[in-house]
Design goal:
Number of domains: 1
Shape: globular
Number of strands: 0
Strand content: under 5%
Structural class: mainly alpha
Radius of gyration: 16 Å
Length: 120
């Protein structure tokens, strides 16, 4: 059990370290880094490489942005295998719907509980 926490911390931390290095040492904008991480998750997921990272890092690998890309890739591949070409359009949406719904719901709840302000 404790090893799960440690491995999740290591993998999630490494992903954050890589992002911080990209922010500090390159001229990439945060948006480009985020898109790059999701794209990397899609590519590594499609090649079954990210499966190894998830087996070791568990939530430390599935929660950050590469995990979102992995979810998109795996659910799209599954849907294409089951439904054909139409699965290329529906698979990612079906696979990521729960996470997206949770993010919207909890964001709304946080906005109700706190006093959100626009940045000036």
């Amino acid at each position: 059990m404790m090893n799960d926490y440690v491995s999740a911390f290591i993998v999630g931390g490494l992903i954050c370290v890589i992002a911080q290095i990209l922010i500090d040492k390159t001229k990439f904008t945060p948006a480009r880094i985020l898109v790059s991480f999701v794209t990397l998750g899609v590519i590594l997921g499609a090649l079954n490489i990210y499966d190894v990272v998830i087996r070791f890092g568990k939530a430390g690998a599935t929660i950050p942005l590469p995990g979102f890309g992995y979810t998109l890739a795996k659910s799209t591949i599954k849907e294409v295998n089951e439904k054909g070409l139409i699965g290329a359009f529906t698979g990612g949406i079906k696979g990521a719907a729960g996470g997206i719904t949770a993010a919207i719901f909890f964001g709304y709840v946080a906005a109700l509980l706190f006093d959100p302000k626009t940045k000036k």
